[in-house]
Structure prediction request, 643 residues.
Amino acid sequence: MSRPLNRLGSVGLALLATLTTILIYWPGLHGGFFFDDYPNIIDNKGVLLKDVSFSSLQATALSGISGIFSRPVSQLSFAVNYYFSGFDPFVFKLTNLVIHCLNAFLVYFLALQLFKGQQSGFLRADVRLYAAGVAIVWMIHPIQLTSVLYVVQRMTSLAALFMLLALLLHIRVRCDDSVNAPKLAILFLAWAVFWPLSILSKEIGLLFPGFVMAYELIVRRSISGGLDAVGRGFKWITLISALLVPLYLLSPLSDWIFSGYNIRAFSLDERLMSEARIFWEYLRLIFFPAMEAFGLYHDDMPLSTGLFSPWTTLPAIFGLLGIVLIGFLVRKKFPLITFGIAWFFIGHALESTFIPLELMHEHRNYLPLFGVCVVLIVGIGCLINRPGVKRTIGIALFAAFLIYCMLITALRCEMFRNDQIRTQVEAQHHPNSARANYEAGRALVNAFDQDRSNMMAFTLARKHFERSNEFDTSYKMGFLGLLTLECAALDKVDPAIIDSFARRLNETPFSPEDRNLMSAVSAMSVAGTLCLTRNDLEKLFFAALQNPKTSPDAKVRLHVWLADYLWLYSKDLPAAKSSIRQALTLQPTDTSNRFKWAQLVYISGEKGVAKKLLNDLQGQPLSSEEKKTFDELLNSFDTPGNK
Prediction:
């Protein structure tokens, strides 16, 4: 039996683990922004917090473009970073690392509560060591890297922070059956404050009741020997939810969810079958982490189009059912194993099931990893508790696994220090990934811009963009890369590229990423960094607008971006007004577009009509930039020439 870890030893171990994590991650903090960081943070004007007034904070909170709730807590955190340091990626990433370390402490206390209940059973050593083992593996594991160095995934870590706080408070109250005012206040704090904050950071906060159910029905039940009134209530909630959720999904009320498949290259059936295989890929990354297997992008994961296509699909499904069966069979002897399995699946219940998100991302394991770590430490603990060679094997296995995880995480952090190195290595590790190839090509374009004699960078960038277009027939960013490259090197674009780009815009699903693409095409053309002719640009926009899978909301945005180009670059006011008019026909109540229309009317000389339009917009929500322009236009009518 090991010597109990005293308070001083606990603090020392915590500080050592935290310092080690900071040192490992430090090189990666010097990298830049990438992927979804741009639309959510860099290009999101709502993040540009200039003052801390109520109106500014409100505008910032409502500026999110992700999720059904816009994730206002996360948006505010990005804005606070900007307020104090501008768009310094180091500060953004350092903030992420601080949140990650705080979460590791919460993971420790949560694991401690779980292991305390098993102290008289198979875990006979000091439970603080077991809890520390869970927290250290969770904190240092390489699968957690993108939740730290991929800035926008602060949404995930912030949601986890508030959810873990809520769960710890709930467990603290439920440690005994007494009821008093302080306990009710703690429950209120957990369920009415921290839980909503979790949801408003990212929608995975909705899973909190599921984690509470796992604790009540598995862990607390094993400790107390049965279910009390609260536990029985959660049992019935679980049973009713298991019935109501499928009924809801089968009803017309769920159409808003499944309509999302219109912008995906896969169906619901294909997604569910693919996720069965992806679960096993996640477990491989967790138990057997290999440098080349990790990546920011996993769009090279083959889609399951049938139970035997690929052939691993059906075995993967049966394998997952086998894990569930194991959890059920060992629930009395090893309740923490059952809890860990349940936690892993609950943690993936939103992002890895029926919702039409992209198939695979490593950051989706940020919370689910805790369940796997519990199972791992219980298994190691069972070996350590046995004398002789088994104890030695258990300690050696844990030490080797921890050191190996630290090494892989350190290597990945070093890779993330330099964006050009990161993108080239990721394209090498995932050669069939359209996104990895696009990012590698874009980094080489930057190198070519700095040295126009670097024809090697030009040739390799072009190859990456062509591979990007080849490996995913619905992916379009590779065409933007080719346009950027040709304009930089030749100041003209091959018409064949425009034709291929237009066909893909017209014939493949128009995804949220494609909105960012077309916004960039318009903005770069206005700025002069793309050398497209007006005919070229209109050909691309009209192809996207005529795509039957382009949603009405996307069409509104396309008309607006086309109008921006027509006025700001081509100076064709009638054409710009026509484009905005079509946007308003599709969405008459859009405040921003009504304001754009008022500006175009003003510019065309119809001052009286413009003033009436502006008066109608008084009190309507506008961004800080729009509000400034709005006030300037309205004040202009006070000048003698405009009265």
The mean pLDDT is 90. The chain has 29 helices and no strands.
